[in-house]
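Structure first, sequence second, as always.
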């Protein structure tokens, strides 16, 4: 299981944990090399060529090439040349492991893979041992981290969007733009050239109430045409369905288009580009469209005692394997308190199925595609989420700890230098 094998010495190692000093020294050696690698990517030219050569050299050890399998990346040459930077973001691990020189002071029994794996986890869960009341446990990983945790350094999408105004007839008006953006998949690799609604990936989370009249004004600031589809909505006027050449003409650079409908049914839904979509959705034109049930007693907080909710929008194209526009260790951990009930709205905007696996807990699956399962609700610890699907899962946080939470297609989560991509954790803090 990834976390355990990554943060502890392998069985062949000396039973004593390596000293902090030895690990820090080895880490700083690797970090310097990591910095040089990033600098090389940013500089392009000769360095870029040598990085490309390194990546080619690394290929035989890598059983699955995320770059090759990612839909948009493989089709990229016409619309988005596959730059070394983009490749590095898709498989951030490949070039680091290709460096040949031995790492000085590698703890006994460790490989460079082990050390790189630990660095990734430190970037993700540094500074956690204090809040968990676990000082002394895996201090190299959960202990004081000289760097801030990754998620404080990268931009976050999925920010709540308030209506710009509410008309006299109750219509909620939302204004959105469609923009070219540079998006950091993590804090180390160069940002990728992406698209965003309101300059973020995922686009802003839009939340309305069942039966609300909504009007969504989109202004296209891209250099290409687009169209927006509200995935899961059942409205009367099909011309609001957002499929260029089927229900409307695409709207081009500098143009605007307004979608207007009554929000129904309730549930977890999405909005995304439906034009040149392999490319546009793969570059970040995706977002959550959540319709709360009209009756308050039907909402998750009242009905199931949900205390916190999280949206997980997956993608597996331009930015590699991502949750909410970031790959591990820049994914955001779910942080809860013992006793919390956490709702996760899984939304797959990618091109392949991802089986989400919770360590330590079964999820209570209460809705699919916005439709409540009722007596057909079920529990599982691994939930396959197909492209286009939304599943609502509730976790009873009854035991403190740092619980790994990841897609269980292993090449989506672990590479030659540790975990990447669709990995996060459920962190449950003890009382107080
Ligand atoms: Cu996956």
């Amino acid at each position: 299981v990834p976390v355990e094998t990554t943060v502890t010495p392998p069985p062949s190692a000396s039973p004593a944990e390596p000293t902090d000093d030895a690990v820090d020294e080895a880490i700083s050696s690797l970090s310097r090399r990591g910095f040089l690698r990033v600098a090389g990517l940013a500089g392009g030219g000769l360095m870029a060529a040598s990085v490309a050569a390194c990546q080619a050299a690394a290929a035989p050890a890598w059983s699955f090439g995320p770059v090759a399998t990612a839909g948009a990346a493989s089709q990229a040459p016409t619309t988005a040349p596959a730059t070394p930077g983009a490749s590095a973001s898709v498989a951030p691990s490949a070039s680091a492991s290709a460096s040949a020189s031995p790492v000085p002071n590698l703890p006994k029994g460790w490989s460079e893979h082990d050390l790189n794996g630990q660095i990734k986890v430190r970037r993700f869960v540094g500074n956690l041992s204090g809040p968990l009341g676990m000082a002394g446990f895996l201090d190299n990983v959960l202990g004081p981290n000289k760097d801030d945790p990754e998620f404080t350094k990268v931009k976050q999408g999925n920010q709540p969007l308030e209506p710009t105004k509410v008309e006299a007839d109750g219509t909620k008006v939302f204004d959105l733009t469609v923009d070219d953006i540079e998006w950091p998949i993590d804090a180390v690799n160069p940002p990728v050239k992406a698209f965003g609604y309101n300059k973020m990936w995922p686009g802003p989370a839009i939340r309305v109430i069942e039966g609300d009249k909504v009007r969504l004004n989109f202004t296209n600031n891209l250099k290409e045409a687009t169209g927006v589809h509200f995935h899961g909505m059942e409205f009367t006027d099909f011309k609001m369905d957002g499929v260029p050449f089927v229900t409307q003409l695409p709207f081009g650079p500098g143009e605007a288009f307004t979608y207007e409908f009554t929000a129904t049914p309730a549930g977890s839904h999405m909005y995304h580009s439906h034009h040149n979509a392999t490319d546009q959705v793969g570059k970040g034109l995706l977002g959550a469209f959540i319709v709360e049930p009209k009756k308050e007693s039907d909402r998750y907080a009242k009905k199931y005692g949900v205390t916190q909710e999280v949206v997980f929008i997956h993608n597996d194209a331009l930015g590699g394997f991502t949750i909410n526009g970031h790959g591990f260790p820049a994914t955001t951990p779910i942080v809860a308190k013992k006793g919390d009930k956490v709702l996760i709205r899984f939304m797959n905007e990618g091109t392949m199925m991802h089986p989400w696996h919770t360590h330590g807990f079964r999820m209570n699956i209460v809705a699919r595609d916005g439709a409540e399962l009722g007596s057909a609700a079920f529990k599982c610890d691994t939930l396959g989420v197909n492209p286009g699907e939304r599943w609502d899962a509730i976790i009873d946080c009854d035991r403190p700890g740092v619980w790994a939470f990841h897609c269980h297609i292993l090449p989506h989560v672990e590479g030659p230098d540790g975990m990447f991509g669709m990995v996060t954790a459920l962190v449950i803090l003890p009382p107080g």
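Margin note: Confidence is low (pLDDT under 50) at residues 1-18, 29-100.
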